[in-house]
Write a structure and sequence with these properties.
This protein has four helices and five strands. It is 41% helix and 19% strand. Among the domains are: 61 residues, Phosphorylase Kinase, domain 1 (2-Layer Sandwich); 37 residues, no CATH class.
Length: 150
């Protein structure tokens, strides 16, 4: 191993890659617990949890060939991309895992929360109204119960 790569870092979490291991450092142990539980319920291959020592979760990199890197050209074959797409479809078609604090909440309640958050993003100037509106239109099928409109 010749380097440590910072995958993501912000005020809540930092994720580092050290060789074939990802280290997730999170100030909120509950978030790590939820993540591990969600991975155990996923109908697709997920990383192996190597160890957990709060505030760190160590997971193994999934085996396989990289299809591409952010900002770089695709190195994956069309067949590899099709297989990745099939895996993502299986994941998206699976029922959502129960989330602490969200259990028993209706889709309408979650949609209302999303609307409030979108309004806050616009009024605080973080995002443009145009961008929020376009993305809200894209999410409607996911947050609208069948046979109902929002």
């Amino acid at each position: 191993m010749d380097e440590v790569k910072v995958v993501v870092a912000h005020s809540e979490r930092a994720t580092l890659r050290v060789g074939d291991v990802f280290l997730k450092v999170d100030a909120d142990q509950a978030r790590i617990d939820v993540e591990v539980e969600a991975m155990s319920l996923a109908p697709v291959p997920t990383p192996q949890v190597l160890w957990r020592r709060p505030p760190v979760l160590a997971i193994a990199a999934l085996p396989g060939t990289t299809l591409g890197s952010l900002g770089g050209p695709s190195t994956g074959s069309p067949a590899a991309w099709a297989a990745a797409g099939g895996t993502i479809r299986r994941l998206h078609q699976a029922p959502l895992p129960p989330l602490p604090g969200r259990a028993g909440r209706s889709i309408a309640a979650l949609a209302a929360e999303l609307d409030d958050e979108c309004e806050l993003l616009v009024t605080s100037g973080v995002l443009s109204a145009d961008l929020v509106t376009r993305n809200a239109e894209a999410e409607k099928p996911a947050t609208t119960p069948p046979g109902r409109s929002r």
